[in-house]
Amino acid sequence: MRIQQISVFLENKTGRLAEVTRLISGAGVNIRALSIADTAEFGILRLIVDRPADAAEALAKGGFTTRMTDVLAIEIPDQPGSLAKVMEIFKDTGVNIEYLYASLEKDCATAVVIFKVEDLELGIKIATQHKLSTVECL
Prior knowledge:
CATH architecture of the largest domain: 2-Layer Sandwich
Largest sheet: 7 strands, antiparallel
Number of strands: 7
CATH class of the largest domain: Alpha Beta
Number of domains: 2
Helix content: 25-40%
Oligomer: single chain
CATH topology of the largest domain: VC0802-like
Strand content: 35-45%
Structural class: alpha+beta
């Protein structure tokens, strides 16, 4: 259902992403999914990790600015049309998607899609009503 995502604000320069991953690794935290969007000057790294509070603390101690956000994780079959079905459900029920990214599961039969929706409670309600397979941890 609801999982925590860490957003890390990064300068767009060599080595910053390596430093983030070093700090997280040093805290014994496992990265489960990630996405990065950038401009010429900065980037936003979005992470799903197994221990968000520990990762955020390690990053803060390393001088990084972070923000925790609740997001919705939905498991879908890894086949054509699976994401389109979820998107249609959200469209038809008025769930506004701000962004999303995906992570393939190890068995390659499913993927987990991370949704940042405008109204998380509505997103969870709609996912439950439509029997979408939500994920509580990755």
